[in-house]
């Protein structure tokens, strides 16, 4: 037995209770094709598309609900209007900052040429289309610039690293996603303190100097369901994104408990958040320029594993305190570091304290968390990931809080976490 084993051996992991949070959220759109069709009937959108126009459709890489269905519906509408669409990965430095890697990311999200019904042209080459007064170059995907028109599809939501009237959405995709690694690097040059201004100013330059036509913005509710899809012409982009971001934040899910000492995250990865774990859920700000929506501020965060669809990209793991050998074995550093180096968020690539297994990682967090209000036992939550938090586990000492909240349903009796022979949890990611 190692000294680490001796230190952690007597640390007790409490019994846990599965609960369900009931959020006040609008209903999911049931017919994606019909909604997209209705948006294309709007004169300010329909009149932009001419017969035989080539249209580059920007496709993103994050966990956007039903993105493959939305993208296919958009491409079908363009075809119906006589246009000739093709896909372009618009994801900055993701996919290891290679053309092949970005195609692979799209494939894992279900966006293949066969499914979308059009060609996908992937390249990391860019064209300079302008320059900001602060000297930053404004770059645009070479394949997109060969089209008669450019559109993009993206979810409008809170950004992980800064808080502003416009955060993550069409404008950011236009400024950073379409700019590939070099352009994303340019936009991040002065850090996240300047990001809110730079993405808007770069988007203005691109709208003026490229054939950008409109964006398709999606809004999701607290259950990771698409509740709105809006086609927004270029001249209304800034105005509408501000409104849609505010609406998106009003739907954002939160953990309905206070005084959380330890947050255990089963799975992290790009399919859940650009930062692997959404700071707005964990409550731990990754920069001084963002204010988490979450009200919890856990003293310790544990992440147990990396989702296989992340392709080894563990960007954001550095914002956990403890992790496991299992996760570390899955990390592809050449896949991870392009994001880290481009964003300038070095902590994104830090390696947490690595323990042999899930049980030890949990024990380490419990042992080291600081409780200042006189309580003897840590208050612990365990979530499947940061995208789905309607159902999760709470420690038994939080049960009375759950009973007092009419929006929380208690699903199980208190039970100890089940570990396998390697001391890893047997139900990892349940509820994902």
Overview of the structural elements:
This protein is of the alpha/beta class. The protein is built from 16 helices and 15 strands. The chain has a 6-stranded mixed β-sheet. Strand 4 (126-131) and strand 5 (137-141) form a beta hairpin. Helix 2 (32-40) crosses helix 4 (67-80), helix 8 packs across helix 10 and helix 9 (180-187) packs across helix 14. The longest helix has 15 residues, at 195-209. It is globular, with a radius of gyration of 22 Å.
**Average of the residue pLDDT scores:** 95
Helix content, binned percent: 25-40%
Helix count from the secondary structure assignment: 16
Mass-distribution shape: globular
- What structural class should be given to the helix and strand makeup? alpha/beta
> Which stretches are poorly predicted, pLDDT < 50 over at least 5 residues?
none
Rg (C-alpha, Å): 22 Å
Q: How many E strands?
A: 15
Query: How would you characterize the largest beta sheet?
Result: 6 strands, mixed
**Strand ordering within the main sheet:** 10-9-13-14-1-15
The multimeric state of the shown protein is single chain
- Strand percentage lies at 15-25%
In angstroms, what separates the terminal alpha carbons?
35 Å
């Amino acid at each position: 037995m190692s000294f680490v084993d001796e230190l952690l051996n007597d640390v007790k992991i409490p019994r846990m209770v599965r609960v369900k949070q009931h959020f006040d959220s609008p209903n999911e759109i049931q017919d994606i094709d019909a909604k997209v069709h209705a948006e294309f009937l709007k004169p300010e959108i329909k009149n932009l598309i001419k017969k035989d126009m080539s249209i580059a459709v920007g496709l993103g890489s994050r966990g956007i609900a039903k993105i493959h269905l939305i993208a296919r519906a958009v491409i079908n509408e363009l075809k119906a209007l006589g246009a000739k669409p093709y896909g372009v990965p618009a994801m900055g430095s993701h996919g290891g900052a290679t053309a092949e890697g970005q195609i692979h990311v799209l494939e894992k999200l279900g966006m293949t040429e066969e499914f979308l019904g059009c060609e996908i042209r992937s390249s990391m080459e860019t064209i300079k289309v302008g320059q900001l007064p602060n000297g930053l170059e404004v770059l645009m995907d070479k394949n997109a610039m060969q089209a008669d028109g450019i559109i993009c599809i993206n979810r409008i939501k809170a950004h992980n690293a800064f808080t502003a009237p416009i955060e993550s959405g069409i404008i950011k995709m236009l400024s950073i996603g379409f700019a590939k690694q070099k352009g994303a690097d340019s936009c991040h040059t002065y850090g996240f303190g300047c990001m809110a201004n730079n993405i808007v100013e770069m988007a203005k330059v691109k709208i003026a100097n490229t054939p950008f036509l409109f964006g398709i913005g999606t809004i999701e509710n607290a259950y990771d369901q698409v509740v709105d899809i809006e086609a927004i012409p270029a001249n209304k982009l800034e105005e509408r994104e501000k409104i849609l971001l505010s609406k998106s934040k009003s739907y954002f899910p939160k953990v309905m408990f206070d005084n959380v000492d330890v947050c255990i995250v089963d799975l992290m990865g790009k399919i859940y958040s650009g930062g692997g774990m959404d700071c707005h859920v964990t409550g731990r700000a990754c920069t001084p320029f963002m204010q988490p929506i979450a009200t919890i501020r856990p003293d310790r965060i544990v992440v147990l594993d990396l989702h296989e669809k992340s392709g080894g990209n563990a960007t954001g793991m550095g914002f956990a305190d403890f992790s496991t050998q299992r996760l570390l074995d899955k990390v592809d550093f050449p896949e991870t570091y392009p994001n880290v180096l481009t964003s300038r968020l070095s902590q994104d690539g830090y390696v947490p304290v690595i323990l042999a297994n899930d049980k030890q990682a949990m024990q380490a967090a419990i042992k080291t968390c600081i409780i200042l209000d006189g309580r003897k036992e840590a208050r612990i939550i365990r979530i499947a990931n940061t995208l789905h938090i309607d159902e999760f586990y709470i420690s038994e000492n939080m049960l009375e809080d759950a009973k007092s909240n009419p929006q929380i349903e208690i699903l199980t009796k208190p039970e100890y976490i089940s570990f396998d022979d390697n001391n890893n949890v047997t139900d990892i990611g349940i509820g994902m």
